[in-house]
Specification:
By secondary structure, the chain is an alpha/beta fold. Helix content is 39%, strand content 18%. The chain contains 11 helices and 9 strands. An 8-stranded mixed β-barrel has the order 1-2-4-5-6-7-8-9, surrounded by 4 helices. Helix 2 runs antiparallel to helix 4 and helix 8 packs parallel to helix 9. 33% of the residues are buried.
Length: 287
């Protein structure tokens, strides 16, 4: 059943092959008309029905007609008002995932209502933590052609050098991948200066190893209270839910606008993000 589902999704993603086969079938019927016209006069009608059926399924599956839009498995609607802001000129739409999203159907993920342009995925946590779904998510994102990035969840009570080494051991970047991301959400039990120095140390090690400036992810309040002024040299990915004007004054490159997106291929809520810039700019950003 899973194989059949994969085949159907592949056929819907590659209509040129299906239409080519139907066209070839039409030519065969034309040139062999004398052989089938009397014994099997239904063949042209069968071919026509196959074509109509494929078009109908294609329209339904790709949400071209709202009345035929398939129901999501968790019976909720996508946050279309938010994702529709991304027009591939000013903003691009993307997600970030971890093991908490469970097994992702990456082929279905491509069929979400608004075109998905990038995905970040958690790779490591602290000095020795590993996201159990990272390897699969990383390879699957590449297979379906999505711009991909990996992030590390920072634990301020652990050694920052060991945390950087943990990320380096796990993550191998290729040409076209997004820069590494440091997710900073917690204060340090050793004070704010210790937090800032640890963060900068992780960033320096990662930048030297991969040859690209890492991105810093954090919440709007956390950034303004704990990190502002200490990470200005690095791209900012800020999380803030609600009215978008709350982040207008911040120098963000990525903006996590929702933690309750619902999309095809993922059974749980997932974070929705914008990239500030055109699709061309996004494709040229990173490695």
């Amino acid at each position: 059943m899973a194989l059949l589902r994969t085949l159907v999704i592949w056929l819907l993603n590659h209509p040129q092959y299906v239409l080519g086969l139907l066209g070839l079938g039409t030519l065969v019927l034309i040139f062999t008309k004398k052989k089938w016209q009397r014994k099997k006069p239904y063949l042209p009608w069968l071919l026509a029905l196959v074509f109509i059926g494929y078009v109908f399924v294609f329209i339904r599956f790709y949400d071209r007609i709202e009345a035929l839009r398939p129901v999501l498995k968790n019976n909720t609607q996508e946050n279309l008002e938010e994702s529709a802001i991304a027009d591939d000129q000013t903003y691009c739409f993307g997600l970030d995932v971890s093991q908490y999203q469970g097994e992702i159907n990456w082929d279905e993920l491509l069929l979400t209502k608004h075109p998905l342009r990038f995905v970040f995925m958690r790779a490591t946590m602290g000095s020795n933590g590993l996201d159990e779904r990272y390897s699969e998510n990383w390879s699957e994102a590449k297979r379906v052609g999505l711009k991909r990035g990996a992030y590390h969840f920072y634990r301020p009570f652990q050694n920052s050098t060991e945390q950087a080494q943990n990320f380096i051991r796990k993550v191998e970047l290729e040409a076209g991948d997004l820069p590494p991301v440091l997710d900073v959400e917690r204060t340090s039990p050793f004070g704010q200066d210790n937090l800032r120095e640890g963060v900068r140390n992780w960033l320096r090690i990662i930048e030297k190893h991969y040859g690209v400036k890492p991105i810093v992810y954090t919440g709007r309040h956390f950034y303004e209270k704990h990190l502002k002024g200490s990470i200005d040299a690095y791209p900012l990915w800020v999380a803030s839910y609600g009215e978008h004007h709350k982040v207008e004054h911040l120098p963000w490159l990525f903006y996590q606008f929702s933690e309750k997106m619902t999309v095809h291929g993922i059974q749980t809520n997932v974070d929705g993000n914008f990239f500030k810039g055109s699709l061309t700019k996004l494709r040229n950003f990173g490695r």
